[in-house]
Every structure is written in C-alpha cells, then in structure tokens.
Specification:
117 residues; three-stranded parallel β-sheet; 5 helices; globular; alpha/beta; single chain
Length: 117
C-alpha cells in the first residue's frame, strides 16, 4: 500500500518493496490502482508486472495505464471513473462497510471527512 499523496520523484521505495514484490504479485488476485498517472517508477511497474490472471481495477478521473498493458476492453481490467474518495466511499457503502470506515474518519483529510456529512 502506497500512501495516496506520496510522490516519489527522486526518492526510492523501501527495500521491502523490492524484496517482497515478486512473491506478492504472484499471489495477487486483484490490484487496485487509485488516483495515479502510473508514470513514476518503480511504483508504477506494479500495474504491468502482475500475472495474466490478476484483475486490475483503476479508480481515476482518466483511463491511465494503457501504455503499461492495461486493456479496458478485457475481462481483467476495469475503469471506475471519478474522484477516488467519492468512488471508494460508494464502494464501502455498497459493501456495507461505511460504519467500519467511519472509525477511521479522524485520520482522513478534511475533504474526505466532509463526504460523510
């Protein structure tokens, strides 16, 4: 999990990212890509390094990742258009997780908190 406001220009990911990535990706059944242009490496490589069986759900305002092999016409890649905070809140509500999510409201940005009002 990469913090959503982190930009890694000129910085490296923790060593664990590189050592655990191959095994983690082999076990991965769903990759959620949220609010990123998929241009900053090496984090962006996760989307292209998944196995053929891994489903990829992209939550963003625009369809990103086509240059990395994401194919929105396939059965494995999905695009959920819109603001990530709004989309994930809708997902949480649809899954019946809103009450659980509310326990973390104090950790959210003011903009995210306002979505619950």
């Amino acid at each position: 999990l990469q913090h959503p406001t982190t930009v890694l220009y000129g910085r490296s990911l923790p060593t664990d990212f590189f050592t655990k990535k191959p095994d983690d990706l082999q076990q991965l059944s769903l990759l959620i890509v949220a609010g990123t242009s998929l241009t900053v490496q090496p984090a962006a490589s996760i989307a292209s390094d998944t196995s053929e069986d891994t489903m990829r759900a992209v939550f963003d305002r625009t369809q990103v990742g086509k240059n990395m092999g994401i194919d929105y016409s396939s059965d494995h890649d999905f695009f959920i258009e819109g603001d990530c905070d709004v989309s994930f809140l809708e997902l949480a509500r649809a899954c019946g997780w809103e009450e659980d999510l509310l326990t973390y409201k104090h950790l959210m940005s003011p903009k995210s908190q306002a979505l619950f009002d």
